[in-house]
């Protein structure tokens, strides 16, 4: 692929151009290690590194022929074109879109944001489109999919260039729709700038990522940025049972829609009957049997139902396909033990997510069984939520085992100590601290009797543990299956 620089930079706001913009560009990069002859290098000021320092290196000896930057380097090379902008991160987003021929404009792109439910909602919308006979793409925490081609995901919302490259591949594959998770980080870092959205969904907002955003107010503002930027021909669908739902709609130009399990809304849901392996739901007065459990999943399905209708899918077809949707890997994934207890693997890694999952389990089993919870907290992340997670888990469990999650560069024992600070004397009496996650899961299984539920929370779909910066293979689901094989 080749483009003329003057055409490319017509998509961004330029303060000054030094040198000739009539250059042939062979690639756009923001990583100095990826620079090859003919490249346009965008110097971004990152959290850890300011790429402006690499400009002399990447332009030397026939490397980058053009640079986008916020400040000019001390030495200006006559053969290089320097494009000065106010914010190179914002410029990168628009350049990435322009480089890949504005792929989002050729798709019905729907973004899902919120603390919990993003992966499930985006994935189920992708599955809904496919079940209805439409080619679609998915960008999620678990995986990226171009029609049916699965591509491993490295982060919730990819970087500017990867994101537009994947959307471009979707267009080339004939996709009509694309569904993506939109993280708060992506909003603040302008990764979704330059994209045209057909719709946006807000699930809920609870404490998370405060290591990055510092305050809940900043976290809310980050999510709201997504809705504030929507065009007038898009739809904005929000959960009004969350107090921040209407906040998201305050300044949006998009058409506004709501969904709720508790009050009047454009899309109203109701749980009629709930079991560990499914739920009978009412969606706008239509009864549907689904393969999901819990109020939090009812919200996810209600948003999928609403967005499907807003995308123009026929009502009766949508209702039929709702019953065919299956849970996302690691999201309330159930396993039945040969000894008669149930193990559930869930990605719940925030206080609110734990409350939702444990509350859903208790709603189903009542007082007919015990809940044994295994949970940890990630290292080098928001420490403030650790004691809250332990407290909420202890309140809703008959036994609690605190264990390692992804300790990263922290001592696992220190993380467990922080979690235990949230426990009172009564909670401590029913809590164990077992650092080894596999041993913790095995111990929980030994405690379990027929009719009990073992919840293994925090990692869900992840198949690794990150210790001292190194990822080691570890999968909660594999550990459970190993235990079950031993029980036979």
Structure classification: alpha/beta
Radius of gyration computed on alpha carbons: 24 Å
Number of alpha- plus pi-helical segments: 17
Helix content: 25-40%
- Main sheet summary: 11 strands, mixed
Q: How many β-strand stretches?
A: 26
The oligomeric state of the chains shown is: single chain
Distance between the termini: 58 Å
Shape descriptor = globular
Low-pLDDT segments? 208-213
Strand order of the largest sheet: 11-10-9-12-8-13-14-15-16-17-18
Beta-strand percentage?
A: 15-25%
Short description:
It contains 17 helices and 26 strands.
Structure, described:
The chain is an alpha/beta fold and 488 residues long. The strands form 5 sheets. The chain has an 11-stranded mixed β-sheet with strand order 11-10-9-12-8-13-14-15-16-17-18, sandwiched between helices. A 6-stranded mixed β-sheet has the order 19-20-24-21-22-23, with helices on both faces. A 5-stranded mixed β-sheet has the order 2-7-6-5-4. Helix 3 (88-99) packs parallel to helix 5, helix 4 packs across helix 10 and helix 10 (295-310) runs antiparallel to helix 11 (315-322).
């Amino acid at each position: 692929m080749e483009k003329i620089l003057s055409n490319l930079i017509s998509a961004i706001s330029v303060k000054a151009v030094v040198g000739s913009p009539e250059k042939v560009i062979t690639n756009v990069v923001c990583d100095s290690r990826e620079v090859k002859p003919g490249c346009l290098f965008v110097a971004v000021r990152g959290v850890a590194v300011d790429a402006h320092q690499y400009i002399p290196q990447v332009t030397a000896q026939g490397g980058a022929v053009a640079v986008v930057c916020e400040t000019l380097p001390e030495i200006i090379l006559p053969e290089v074109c320097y494009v000065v902008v106010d914010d190179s991160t914002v410029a990168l987003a628009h350049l990435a879109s322009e480089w890949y021929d504005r792929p989002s404009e050729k798709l019905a792109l729907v973004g899902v944001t919120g603390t919990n439910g993003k992966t499930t909602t985006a994935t189920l919308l992708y599955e809904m489109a496919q079940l209805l006979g439409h080619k679609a793409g998915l960008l999620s925490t678990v995986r990226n999919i171009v029609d049916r081609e699965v591509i491993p995901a490295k982060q919730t919302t990819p970087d500017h260039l990867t994101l537009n490259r994947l959307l471009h591949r979707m267009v080339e594959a004939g996709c009509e729709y694309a569904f993506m998770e939109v993280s708060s980080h992506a909003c603040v870092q302008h990764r979704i700038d330059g994209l045209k959205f057909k719709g946006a969904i807000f699930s809920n907002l609870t404490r998370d990522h405060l290591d990055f955003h510092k305050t809940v107010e900043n976290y809310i503002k980050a999510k709201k940025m997504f809705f504030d930027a929507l065009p007038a021909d898009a739809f904005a669908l929000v959960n009004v049972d969350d107090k921040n739902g209407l906040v998201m709609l305050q300044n949006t130009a998009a058409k506004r829609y709501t969904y709720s399990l508790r009050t009047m809304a454009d899309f109203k849901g109701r749980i009629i009957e709930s079991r560990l392996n499914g739920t009978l739901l009412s969606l706008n007065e239509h009864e549907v049997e689904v393969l999901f459990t819990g109020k939090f999943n009812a919200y996810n399905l209600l948003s999928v139902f609403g967005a499907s209708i807003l995308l123009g899918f026929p009502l009766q077809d949508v209702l039929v396909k709702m019953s065919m949707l299956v849970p996302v890997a690691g999201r309330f994934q159930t396993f039945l033990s040969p000894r008669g207890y149930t193990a559930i693997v869930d990605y719940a890694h925030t206080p609110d997510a734990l409350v939702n999952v444990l509350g859903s389990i208790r709603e189903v089993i009542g007082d007919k069984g015990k809940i044994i919870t295994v949970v940890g907290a990630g290292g080098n992340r928001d420490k403030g939520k650790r004691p809250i997670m332990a407290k909420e888990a202890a309140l809703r469990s008959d036994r609690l085992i605190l264990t390692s999650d992804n300790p990263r560069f922290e001592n696992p024992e220190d993380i467990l100590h922080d979690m235990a600070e949230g426990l009172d004397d009564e909670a401590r009496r029913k809590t164990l601290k077992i650092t080894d996650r596999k041993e913790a899961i095995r111990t929980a299984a030994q405690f379990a009797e027929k009719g009990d539920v073992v919840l293994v929370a925090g990692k869900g779909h992840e198949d690794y543990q990150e210790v001292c910066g190194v990822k080691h293979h570890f999968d909660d689901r594999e550990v459970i299956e190993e235990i079950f094989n031993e029980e036979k």
